Amino acid sequence: ETDVQNLVLGGREGRLLEDLMRRQFPVVSPEDHLERAMTLFDSSGLSYLPVVKGERIEGILRLSDVDDFLEVG
């Protein structure tokens, strides 16, 4: 371990991600319209949304990708 890791972790290096992760969050499906994603980005304050089809995560939609798309289009 480095001094930087020790400084950043502050003795919390034994924590599991399971203890830190969100369990409930908004998701979109590949068939959703862009307006739905924008509404969820706005209401949740998140910059990433999981794209879920059925029980499977198909990908991640980033707000920055949407911004780039809107600038080009």
The rough form would be described as: elongated
CATH-derived architecture of the domain at 22-72: Roll
What share of residues is helical? Answer: 40-55%
- Radius of gyration (Å): 17 Å
Low-confidence stretches: none
Could you explain how this protein is built, in words?
With 73 residues, the chain is an alpha+beta fold. It has a domain at 22-72: CBS-domain. It contains 4 helices and 2 strands. The protein has helices at residues 3-9, 17-20, 34-44, 63-72, and strands at residues 48-53, 56-62. The chain has a two-stranded antiparallel sheet. The longest helix has 11 residues, at 34-44. It is elongated and about 45 Å long. The N and C termini lie far apart (47 Å). The model has no long low-confidence stretch (mean pLDDT 88).
Write out key terms for the chains shown.
alpha+beta, two-stranded antiparallel ribbon, 18% strand, 4 helices, elongated, single chain, CBS-domain, 73 residues
List the helices and strands and how they pair.
Layout: H1 3-9, H2 17-20, H3 34-44, E1 48-53, E2 56-62, H4 63-72
